[in-house]
Amino acid sequence: MKRSIAIPAAAGAIVLAMTLTSCSGSAENAAPSEGDYVSGGTFVMATRNDPGDLNPFKAVQLDTWAMVSLSYESLIYVTPEGDFEPWLAEDWEDTGTEATFTIKEGITCEDGTEFTAQTAADNVNFNADPANATFSYPSVIDENVSATAEGNTLTVTSAENDPFLAISVGTLRMVCDAGIADPTILSDGTNSTGLFALTDATPGDTYTLTKRDDYAWGPDGVTSDTEGLPDEIELRVVADESTAANLLLSGELNSASVSGADRSRLDGAGLEFVGVPNPVGEMLFNEREGRPFSDPLVREALATAIDRDEVGPVIADGDGMPSKSLVVRSPFLCVEDEPEWSLPETDLDRAGELLDEAGWTLNDDGKREKDGEPLTIKFIYNASTSTHAPAAELVQEMWNELGVTTELFANDAAAWADQLYTTYDWDTGWVQMVPGSPGVLSTFFGPTPAEGGLNFMFVDNPEYNALAAQAASASPDETCGLWQDAEKELIERFDVFPVIDNVLPTYQSGAVFDLPNYVQPTTIRMLP
Prior knowledge:
Keywords: Signal, Transport
Largest sheet: 5 strands, mixed
CATH topology of the largest domain: Dipeptide-binding Protein, domain 3
Signal peptide: 1-27
Organism: Microbacterium murale
CATH architecture of the largest domain: Roll
Protein name: Peptide/nickel transport system substrate-binding protein
Radius of gyration: 23 Å
Mean pLDDT: 91
Structural class: alpha+beta
Number of strands: 24
CATH superfamily of the largest domain: Dipeptide-binding Protein, Domain 3
Number of domains: 3
Family: Belongs to the bacterial solute-binding protein 5 family.
CATH class of the largest domain: Alpha Beta
Strand order of the largest sheet: 19-18-20-13-21
Shape: globular
Strand content: 15-25%
């Protein structure tokens, strides 16, 4: 199998994976051997919020992707270390303007139809059509990309050079023919080649997926008969982290992400975990016209006022690590050992000078105002993440010293959607992006929601946009350097402020599994 894409950041990807591995629970314990597995039963995993619309073409929220990843498969499998292995495709080649994939024989969909190279081509063309407005357009592929099929060979061409063409196409989640013909059926059901298919759903409560008995094309030779696979997967909505921890300890849950104080109970009980890098301390800014952070001086001032050495350990729960990149998910494309950008030293005096320069002056009661209006910041955070509130309160205290009024808002899932994509009534907070490539990252800095895009921050950074455009069509040897320069523009213009990262642990109880980004169902193995 020829893979002509060169990824200069491969070493950086391994460093992130090694960091992740070193933070895995009970690392000294050997993995169970094949004979230690027991087949059958139900694998029960928790999700914090209801996944909502299940259409993989439209999935944006993390809880939705957790569900999508249980059923939909791609041509290429990406391991937790960021390596690429065959999945629906048995091999592939790439020149930058053309990628060819050989689709495995005998793949069938859950509805009994055949998955062919033509089905794969239809997926590519659907995602490349701007009229369909999928999540993958234009961050992964765009109208420059088209696909054709002949026999079991898929040929993808790009009108412009794309250094990640095979990987971009190869990691698209593939939908079967019926779902492409009528995407509305995907909102409350599945239409895929996956090992597990959705058979029952109670929104807000549970989603049940049942193992197929004719599956034979999984990574590493996994089939329906592989020892240790469960008969069913139950995705259960468990909003409270303490409740999830209790259910893990009682054995009622096999998998749940727990990042707060309840970790000590799980660690003490000897539960192991796998994890992914988590930009827990990432701050984004609403730069919409009329909001305080539309002024770069205000963004720089309030970022400079934050003592990261004090706030970081609180929000990371004492287990933080410096951010290396805004790309924090597998396959970690264009992530190097160290970032090119730098963050400012904490300096309240400098922060005050910047606010003065921006016209926000101190009045007699020690509050900042401009044209008679107080400088008021709406700071949002996730109500269900236990470390968000105390870290937000620390930031509030630091900004109080500057004369800034900071209003804190604890959001649930509905409030996030409303503030970020409907009312735009927020200023900053612990708001995270978790892309696996710089191309996906760029989606959040392109068109605004009013223009049909995902740029809910209303960032307009011409230098970033120019570098991103160059990187998207550069040679494999040049692309990552350009993407790193582009990321530097975002950080040093204070469009993003990464206070600290940590590892988001997903605990295991009564089962083991891999976590490339989400629980990978073909890797689930039930324990006695």
